[in-house]
Amino acid sequence: MNPARWDAIVIGADVNGLVAAHYLARAGRRVLLVDPRAAPEPRADVGWVPPEIIRELKLPAPGLAGNQHDPWIAAPLDGGGRLELRRDIGASVEQIRRISPADAAKWPEFCARMRRLAGVLEALYVQPAPDVETREIGELLRMGRLGLRVRRLGKQTVIDLLRILPMSIAELLDDWFGNDTLKGVLGAAGVWHLRQGPRAGGTAFNFLHHHVGSPAGVFRPPRSTITTVLAAMPGVEIRWGTEAAVVAVGGRATGVRMGSDEYSAAIVISSADPQQTFEPLKAQLDAEFVRAVGNIKSRSIVARGRVKLERPADYTVLCLAPSLDHLERAHDDAKYGRTSARPYVEAVATDGRLDLHVQYAVSIDGTLVEKVAAALGVPGDQVRLDPPAGHLYHGELTLDQILFMRPVPGWSRYRTPIEGLYLCGPGTHPGGGIAGAAGRNAARVILKET
Amino acid sequence: MPATYDAIVIGGGHNGLVTAAYLARARKKVLVLEKRPRVGGAAVTEEIFPGFKFTMFSYVVSLLRPEIIRDLDLPRHGLHVLPLESTVTPMENGDYLAAWGDHDETRRELHRHSPRDAEAYDEYGRLMHHMAHAVRPILGMVPPDPTSFDPRDLLALLRLGSHFRGLGAERLHALVKLMTMSSADFLDEWFETDVLKATKSASGIIGTFLGPRSPGTAYVLLHHYMGELDGVFRAWGFAKGGTGAVSEAIASAARGFGAEIRCDAPVARVLVKGGRATGVALENGDEFSAKVVVSGLDPRRTFLELVEERELPSDFVSDIRRFKFRGSSGKVNVALDALPSFTCMPGVGRQHRGAFSISPSLDYVERAYDDAKYGEFSRRPYMDIVFPSMIDPGMAPPGKHVMSVFVQYAPYNLNGGWNDTKREAFGDAVIDTIESFAPGLKSHILHRQVLTPADIERITGLTEGNIFQGELSLHQLFFMRPAAGWAKFRTPVRAYYQCGAGTHPGGGIMGASGRLAALAILGDGA
Q: pTM for the full model?
């Protein structure tokens, strides 16, 4: 066993691991970050970077912001041409007017109402989930303050929150709009990374979750380069290409095993999938906890991939989800364990390539690749789809797996039953699609406790 | 002109009757107006074919609140509940899954399918029992208004919060899961036997336009579990004489307290003067005045048909317009010259004293939903089949039987709309499916009556044929039922109240809405 050169070892150099590591380092802790991957992936980070992180870690803001595509989405129209929605609400109104004047008239109000709700989520996301079981006066006060803050937003917002969060995205959109293309584009955000169709309750929440951090009228998560920025920042030692597992003795974390070496540290923080993190520790955990971890729903249904482009795309982001029914039928296949006969495909054009999101994909095969190629109008041999490798969010964002229920009920505060072991990944509150909030929340809890 | 009545109740369904009975019990002068020739609404027993009596729509009893049975002394008025003893689910492979009245026998049966599930079954039962207890106080409370700054609302919200916190972590978490998950996902955490999960999940889809894999159905599962509480019925049961006998018992109690009940008296509109309800006008033009008017009809009829839109705030009108009904269930009533024999359990026996659940697998039920989702009735539907004449021989002529089939899914908005041909095609799908599990059934059929959601709407007035007066989805429950800010049985029109299942806590032959409405009216000093 090597002597304790580190106060804390963080497993996983993704955005949350990096953020947690840097917060600890900034507080004077010696931190080692390990990651099984050979090198950082050049992929853009999807999701809101809370401004608190940019401020507190003194990150170069220009490297992080301004990466939102505009138009943020384009969708083919039946009669040819495309519906292009922009950041500018007025410009989007003009676009929507061509397909539905009634929908265009409702767009500004819809955008404003959704933005207010996303704002409530943002406030909830930059702190640990409310602890509904607490008897501590401080925590009760914090919850009270949150409650007051929501109520000050007015009666309509309170009603919207109570009514919309448990709804299905289809019901929400049907309340507002009539046009299928528009509802398809918006509805797709409601089922992102969920093994649910747009008629499933809770998909309206998923829609708002992915609106967090975006300006009013933009219903795709913002993108940034925060991982690249943090990985290049001094203060944290990073080792790539090292498989790491938590080592615990008698219910207490003592360090990390990497290959044949063991490194000791009083604190171990994992941004890996909770199910994966706890797998080697089962013998030291009680049966109830093991059962709860086993019950985490993390059914991967998205295939991600790339297309090498010969000539630049004439769009920024293309959404192929022509209607809510299209999404629902795509999901029907997944319900019975099949890949969608007609999947929902979204392509983001960046640096001469397309980044792909294909849903619902249970497995990858030649047929799926051909289908995606045909849908995008590119040669099949240019399409690469990665085999699904676990759920990107380490747990679906369904209503029973958020806030104090995430990652497992009663353990939402980044602590675990293994003393000294903490979680900080997307499997914890506030979940995936938010860049770094879980890492920051976890680091703050750890710094307070140790 | 002084009001003739203290209160007029529109609609003689079980909730309207409960409200009337409680008001009359408090010495109010009450008039109930029912459009049909008999009281009961969707809880009626009718002799559809000579000698064969059917509980036309609803068919089992268990949710009726015990305090109502006690307060109104319903057994004295003829309420007699006979237990429904078992549930048998025929499987596609010829096997079956059975749950019997005897707990040990059920465990042995489960053990045959999966020793692990037999183990989990008791623990699951305990959890659901605790959950039902945890929710029970909610059923008996007027929902507070979360948007109000009234100290009484704030206090009620705080109390509610401390009630939930008082449950302890484990039960609180289970409750959150029940409120948000799909019944399939929830049951997946407990059991491995598919046919068990399918049969259990079926009570999570009843009355909803959702499949067992749709989030929100776990709550409906719990809603139906309430029936197994209190030691009053212990299980689902039949009312002797059909569910109509429940309505008749409540009506008899109401009359006993002095209420007046008029049938064949359809109400055309509520009379409103200066923002205050003053009485009602019947379709034949007769008018009655009252200090208070109470509607037991569903929210759409209560607000969009009985009163003028200008009497209501526009926000409220749009909330009511988007309140979801989406009727999804049908009913097939069959007169038989002999009981059918099911392949999985041949012959005629004690199994016919209970229910047959046509839910052989989760995928089967889910596919039934898929059909309806796109506007067709299920080609192979989920069904709950009972033979009331086996429990109460008075329902059919000697030696003959009645079979009551509750069917899902039959969407109200069928592609191309419902007509006689579609209705019969739907009836054929039902009978053909049962025949596949019970060959020979068809040869025993003397008559059949097929009721689609459109028929249920036409006959009972329930909008879109929804048997719960509005879906029991999370955003239509508690302080959102029927609309945020108007869940306390009052309405934007003064002296006009609502008491139907479209208010908290919702459907089933429960009577809780009717009772809470009456208490709210009395509390307002009417």
A: 0.95
